[in-house]
């Protein structure tokens, strides 16, 4: 039986991106917004220098899809020839053909992306042709000026090695008419762009630490015996240069730059000796708080689901937990973008929000299944050592306060753990509401404990559930009460970056590992799993979690900061079978919650809801890109 219900989850930074596609006339510097000013719009390509028609990616329908906006028209068309997929990227239109990256076909093994290049003829046929060989991963396509050759940044058939600061891709070229005959034109590179049919520019991180643009001269013959070719660096050290785009005239290249005295990227143009200021330049950027268009980030946003009876909603916040009747969701929210998130409650239709704890760090919530006025949370700093003071808190309030207007409501915060007991976090309440399982560092290691949900650990109301010199964390009590699922690195305690799913009975018996990426010893990549935020379906037969096993969908250097750009949501049966991927994008998705039963009344919940926070922020530069070199 397929999983069903409603899943609410978080995506790092995504609700506040507010990207639109803009163009600027290089003769008069007039800037024009080309997209709707409401949704997330990015990675556009002009058809040619004389036609400002663009193809671009937009998330306006709940998933990244390919759209076309014609010159002089306010109408935007979703291209029907593109197959349904959770992810599309880098569309290019050339000679009546559309080229695009899609993820609608699953990879042949874990830790391999499903990013592949496809094409379709927009005039004569809706047939979609896969240009990437099966088992191969391709990113960032570019089509030569004549349309004869295609360049991609390819991971080839290798499984993902876990890197994301700079992907280990090569620049590969093949003929559009014979995509199976591929040659490595240049080793180590990403984001290729053609200038004519004979020159390819691309980026990679130079040996001196600066991201730079390189050039390779393509001989126009795939039979050339001198491949791979040594590239020529065309941008100097001292400035990061990314994502090159060659003009159609072959004389100029636009690049995104990050200079030492700037916090954000800017677009700059590299000129040849023959100067030309004609044409226009396109790019995506944050549309700004004062721009026309939607200025509200909705509390909840519908997201496309790959499973018919499973509804998915993106949350503006973290660590959601449903009330017993499903009418409300508890969450943590970043008040100052420094992880100082308080405790809030929203209606499950996204229409209202209240604040219970403010200006105090709180994270990971568990609403009592038996008390509609009680929420358990962790109070104290997140991502800290075993000795840091983090407490389990029981937050109670009067239920009638959730019937009034938005705002702060009074509550009582009762600390359930001792003052000098270390790092206590990630509470999960038992189905009968009597106990909490949580992670504690009081033993010197992060293991699981169970305590009284009302009186806490005082008067002997606590016992240790797991024990060992490893990390057991993020537990979740099953709806039947018979199992507790959690993440642990006990299979490889020396590596704090690998976690798998384990289940154990509340009495400490029948501990076992749920193998998701293959059985133990079946391949050499099983122990690279990073699985967190595990929770159960209503019937206890499915597990929902976030993981790295889907690899990377796009070049992370081209996206805003993501701490883990490989984080996607998956479901798997309790016996490890039936693995399904629920999200597929370049973001970090996590902290999911599964509604415990029945259909939610989502009311008027929709994309572009007027109920939410004000759009603010900028392009958050990846934290691993530094100008202090």
Q: What layout of secondary structure does this protein have?
A:
Layout: E1 5-11, E2 19-25, E3 31-33, E4 41-48, E5 51-58, E6 65-69, E7 76-78, E8 88-94, E9 97-102, E10 116-121, E11 128-130, E12 137-143, E13 149-156, E14 170-175, E15 178-186, E16 190-195, E17 199-205, E18 211-217, E19 232-233, E20 239-246, E21 252-259, E22 266-271, E23 280-286, E24 296-298, E25 300-303, E26 310-315, E27 318-322, E28 328-334, E29 341-347, E30 353-357, E31 362-367, E32 374-379, E33 391-396, E34 407-408, E35 412-415, E36 424-429, E37 435-440, E38 447-452, E39 462-464, E40 472-477, E41 484-488, E42 500-504, E43 512-514, E44 531-536, E45 542-547, E46 568-573, E47 580-581, E48 589-594, E49 612-614
Parallel strand pairs: 1-26, 30-34
Antiparallel strand pairs: 1-48, 2-3, 2-23, 4-5, 5-6, 6-7, 8-9, 9-10, 10-11, 12-13, 13-14, 14-15, 16-17, 17-18, 18-19, 20-21, 21-22, 24-49, 25-26, 27-28, 28-29, 29-30, 31-32, 32-33, 33-35, 36-37, 37-38, 38-39, 40-41, 41-42, 42-43, 44-45, 45-46, 46-47
């Amino acid at each position: 039986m397929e999983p069903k219900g409603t899943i609410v989850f978080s995506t790092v930074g995504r609700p506040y991106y507010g990207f639109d596609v803009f163009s600027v006339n290089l003769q008069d510097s007039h800037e024009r917004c080309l997209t709707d000013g409401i949704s997330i719009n990015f990675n556009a390509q002009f058809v040619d220098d004389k036609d400002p028609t663009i193809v671009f990616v937009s998330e306006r329908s709940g998933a990244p899809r390919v759209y076309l906006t014609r010159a002089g028209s306010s109408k935007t068309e979703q291209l029907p020839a593109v197959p349904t997929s959770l992810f599309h990227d880098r569309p290019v239109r050339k000679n009546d053909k559309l080229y695009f990256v899609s993820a609608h076909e699953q990879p042949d093994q874990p830790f391999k992306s499903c990013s592949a290049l496809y094409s379709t003829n927009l005039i004569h046929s809706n047939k979609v042709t896969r240009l990437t060989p099966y088992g191969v991963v391709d990113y960032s396509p570019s089509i030569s000026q004549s349309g004869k050759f295609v360049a991609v940044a390819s991971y080839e058939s290798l499984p993902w090695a876990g890197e994301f600061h700079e992907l280990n891709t090569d620049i590969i070229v093949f003929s559009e008419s014979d995509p199976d005959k591929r040659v490595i034109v240049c080793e180590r590179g990403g984001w290729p762009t053609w200038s004519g049919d004979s020159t390819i520019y691309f980026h990679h991180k130079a040996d001196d630490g600066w991201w730079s643009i390189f050039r390779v001269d393509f001989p126009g013959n795939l039979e050339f015996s001198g491949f791979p070719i040594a590239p020529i660096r065309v941008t100097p050290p001292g400035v990061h240069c990314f994502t090159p785009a060659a003009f159609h005239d072959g004389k100029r290249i636009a690049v995104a730059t990050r200079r030492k005295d700037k916090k954000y990227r800017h677009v700059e143009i590299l000129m040849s000796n023959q100067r030309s200021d004609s044409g226009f330049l396109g790019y995506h950027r944050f549309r700004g708080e004062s721009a026309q268009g939607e200025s509200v980030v909705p509390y909840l946003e519908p997201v496309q689901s790959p499973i018919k009876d499973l509804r998915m909603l993106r949350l503006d916040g973290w660590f959601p937990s449903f009330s017993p009747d499903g009418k409300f969701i508890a969450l943590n929210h970043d008040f100052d973008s420094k992880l100082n998130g308080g405790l809030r409650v929203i209606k499950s239709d996204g229409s209202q929000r209240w604040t219970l704890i403010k200006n105090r760090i709180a994270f990971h919530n568990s609403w009592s299944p038996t008390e509609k006025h009680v929420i358990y949370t962790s109070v104290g700093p997140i991502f800290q050592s075993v000795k840091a003071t983090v407490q389990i808190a029981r937050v109670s309030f009067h239920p009638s306060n959730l019937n009034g207007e938005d705002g702060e409501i009074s509550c009582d915060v009762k600390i359930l753990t001792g003052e000098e007991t270390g790092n206590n976090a990630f509470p999960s309440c038992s189905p009968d509401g009597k106990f909490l399982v949580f992670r504690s560092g009081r033993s010197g290691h992060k293991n699981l404990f169970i305590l009284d949900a009302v009186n806490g650990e005082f008067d002997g109301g606590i016992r240790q559930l797991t024990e060992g010199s490893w990390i057991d964390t993020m537990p979740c009590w099953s709806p039947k009460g018979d199992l507790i699922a959690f993440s642990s690195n006990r299979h490889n305690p020396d590596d704090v970056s690998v976690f798998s799913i384990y289940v154990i009975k509340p009495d400490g018996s029948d501990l076992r590992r749920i193998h998701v990426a293959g059985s133990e010893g079946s391949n050499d990549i099983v122990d690279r799993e990073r699985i967190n935020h595990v929770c159960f379906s209503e019937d206890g037969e499915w597990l929902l979690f976030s993981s790295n096993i889907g690899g990377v969908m796009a070049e992370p250097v081209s996206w805003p900061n993501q701490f883990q750009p490989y984080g996607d949501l998956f479901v798997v049966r309790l016996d490890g079978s039936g693995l399904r991927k629920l999200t597929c994008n370049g973001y970090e998705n996590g902290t999911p919650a599964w509604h415990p039963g029945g259909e939610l009344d989502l009311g008027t919940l929709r994309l572009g809801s007027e109920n939410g926070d004000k759009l603010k922020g900028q392009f958050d530069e990846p934290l691993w890109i530094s100008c202090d070199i």
